[in-house]
Write a structure and sequence with these properties.
Elements: E1 9-12, E2 16-19, H1 28-40, E3 48-52, E4 55-62, E5 69-74, E6 84-90, H2 93-99, E7 127-134, E8 137-144
Parallel strand pairs: 2-5, 3-6, 6-8
Antiparallel strand pairs: 1-2, 3-4, 4-5, 7-8
Biased composition (Basic and acidic residues): 106-119
Region (Disordered): 99-119
Organism: Cotesia congregata (Parasitoid wasp)
């Protein structure tokens, strides 16, 4: 007998669906840009694991052409050594959900991959995003700015 599990997803723009366990509120723009990077890299030979708050996922495409939907399906572990891992770690989940805010390392530098302060009322005043990159992993650490 087959066992089926029902996954719950939250929809981001452009037919992208992420696990409902991910802290999406306040991070819509940031997560949309990360998911777009993974989707745009779908033709490469490497497996990309997008992990948010220790919830790893891989991209699963459903449909074809303009009707394609992109599901970031939860997996048990990013255990593949050849997989490239993109990890998002948020220092204080309670604070993020209460304040619904974050900041980039330097919001004056803008590119397609940067977070913009015009993103649906998100304040960029309370968090820094620290980035760490290695050969097969990029990690984004959201760090609460401590008031003195």
């Amino acid at each position: 007998m087959r066992e089926f599990s029902t996954a719950k997803y939250v929809q981001l723009p452009n037919r992208v669906f992420v696990p409902s366990e991910w802290p999406v509120k306040g991070l819509e723009s940031f997560l949309s840009k990360l998911t777009k990077l993974v989707i745009d890299d779908v033709t490469s030979d490497r497996v990309i694991v997008l992990q948010v708050q220790d919830i790893p996922t891989i991209l699963v495409c459903c449909g074809e052409g303009e009707e394609t939907q992109y599901f970031f399906q939860r997996i048990s572990s990013p255990g593949q050594t050849e997989a490239y891992v993109i990890d998002v770690v948020i220092a204080t989940m309670d604070n993020l959900s209460k304040k619904n805010s974050m900041t980039s390392e330097d919001s004056s530098k803008s590119s397609e991959n940067d977070i913009s302060d015009s993103d649906k009322g998100i304040s960029l005043d309370n968090y820094n995003i620290m980035t760490h990159q290695s050969e097969n992993k990029t990690a984004y650490y959201f760090v609460l700015i401590q008031e003195k």
